[in-house]
Amino acid sequence: MGIRELAKHLNISIGTVSRALNGRGDVNPETRRRVLEAAAELGYSPNQSGRSLRQGSTRAIAFMLQAYSGPEPYGEPFFIGLFDGVQEVLARHGLDLVVLLNTPDGDHEAQLRRVVERRLADGILLPWTRRIDPRLDFLAQRRFPFAALGRSLSGGEHPWLDLDFQQAAWTAVGRLAGFGHRRIALGNAGHDLMQGHVLLDGYAQALAQHGIGFDEALVQGEEMTEAGGYRLVDALLRRGPPPTALFVVNERMVVGAYRRLNEAGLRPGREIAVIGGMIDSPFGRFLSPALTCFRLSLHDLGVKLAEALLATMPGHAEAYGGLGLVQDLWPLELVPRESDRVMLAG
Questions:
Q1: Engineered SS bond to 256: which of 119, 128, 229, 265, CB 3.0-4.6 Å?
Q2: Could you read off the pLDDT of 168-177 as tens digits, one per residue?
Q3: Is the entire prediction scored with pTM above 0.70?
Q4: 60-163+297-330 adopts what CATH topology?
């Protein structure tokens, strides 16, 4: 049933029915009650396409998700938890979350242009930011509402949240150095992601703080998958003496790293210390030995990210006026387990 049929059934104008359904204050409360009850009883369903055209709004927020290769390319537990928080905020305003997928080597800029030019969403959430990221510049130039999960040198002044990768590097290197390690390898993110640059800077600074020289042979960037973790360790082992400790940016990478280490006779937690991952996920908890990693509230991060976006959007900014321009680092808490408890002689 459409709005015309509903109005005819109630013997009132289409305009009155529309205002009642949309919660307008100029409708008599009794009339609104009759309209809502009849709509529920008769199964009225609004024409969302027509409503979007009239209002100039899709009532949707797009999340531009990049996938990696492998049998479960979209199974990253990080984003499942994050979406829960994002959708909680969007639901307050009758907005929906739409996830648009792409691959690391896909044309991200072309996909973004389609979303903006076709007005497929009212705002965009953009993860996996790069150090120089033309996507952010495009959105800023078009004045299209967006918030980024990750920092960048691009995009001018825009809302972003990022994990505190520098602090994570300081914590991990400090812990491993405290156990006597000096050959501490870094398994970093590839694809020129900004988080990789920040993590590398923090790692180098932490080494210097503990009087350990930076060795380029102990740094390897890779795809954040199980296969990437396997290749990471393989590359490190081919370059010379193996490291005594390994800090890996992603928990999926650790799965592959464990396998290659075991093949080489380097048992994690015994012959080599391992710290890995920025979330406490099943990938780490069910490894043997259990993985020393970091954790954060993905739900709370998703809530803050969605609010940061809505605070910049017409029609929603007033509800989040106190936030201002959000540019925050999200803290990470170390979860110590068995994988890094390899003590070296002083």
A1: 229
A2: 999 999 999 9
A3: yes
A4: Rossmann fold (3.40.50)
